[in-house]
Known about the structure:
Blueprint: E1 2-5, H1 12-24, E2 29-35, H2 42-47, H3 57-77, E3 81-87, H4 91-101, E4 107-111, H5 114-118, H6 123-130, E5 135-139, H7 148-161
Parallel strand pairs: 1-2, 1-4, 2-3, 4-5
Amino acid sequence: MLVATDGWPSSAPVIATGVALARALDAPATIVHSMIAWKRWGLLRSLFPAADVPANPERLARAEDCLNRARIVALYAGVPFETRLAFGPDPVRAVLDAAHDTDAGVLVLGADDTIDRLRPGHVIRRIVAGSRVPVLVVPRLRKRPVGADVFAQMRITISQRSR
């Protein structure tokens, strides 16, 4: 089971659903946060992948915060897990590579709405098209909660689904 997230608080249901599904299937979960760590350096990084471009500290902090929240959810649910932080200029490739590397049987993603998922070239659509395993696309929260609200949403979702 691979749960892919972009780190926004609105992706709490994606993490909760992936962890709850892993628990129901008695499977471990791999939670991956894929990111382009270079603010304003994306073009340079795509042209020169080996270039030494410093990572943006704000993006790294957001990624680690997201993975810490996911760790709490998995621990609370009693699901064996690992977390990964994937860097690269192409988040689609990073997620698909992580699914392949972990031999994931299911890929869990989040999308804001149906329009997001159907827009040509959108990340979700490209991942679904390129995946060799089934993909579950979970709607993300419309309102972006912060702080304790995110934790409460994830705990409630897991508690309800584990019954």
